[in-house]
Here is the input.
Amino acid sequence: MADGKPDPKPPPADPKMDPKHGDGHRGLHVGRAICTFIAVFLLICGIIILIVWLVYRPHKPRFTVVGAAVYNLTATPPPFISATMQFTIEARNPNKRVSLHYDRLVMFVTYRNEYITQPVGLPPLHQKKHSTVAFSPVLGGDGLPVPVSPDVANGLLADQAYGVVGVRLVLLGRLRYKAGAIRTRRHRLDVRCDVLLGLRNGVVGQLPLLGDPNCRVDV
Here is the structure.
């Protein structure tokens, strides 16, 4: 203090000159750079996945029943249905760049929404690009009749007397698409084929297919 006057206060320090402020500023820039890099990386990955999907774009397979044989289909009390049936199914892969792999396959037959054969497991199947494969599993025939409702048993007798029996062939499993080194996750496969058979009592063996035996496929 000079001349009885207080000493002037020093000017406030500039926060930008504080070393701690500089470190925080640099950290903020680094964080923004990392976030920008991650966003750009995810955007590029998304564009690549979209391009690959548009190029390959897998279509679901198509199934058709091309043949049927019935060796036994009878209704007996209390009521039961005994069935031994064989269907030939063609599976077509419409994809030119994608192969298909099926597993956990199970097939059975229903009549009026009730089982008339027990589910039968099928081996895994690999289908090449743009190809058609056929398989002919035998369903039923294990000597164990399947219990059904009286309406179903009576309906079968009536349909056999008329000469036309409508059944549904069901194929369930898992489906995976493969394009080069890329494999998709397993998709649930649900195939349902409504088949009209020209069938009368006492007639066994190969039977004519009536109507359009194409199948509905859900993946």
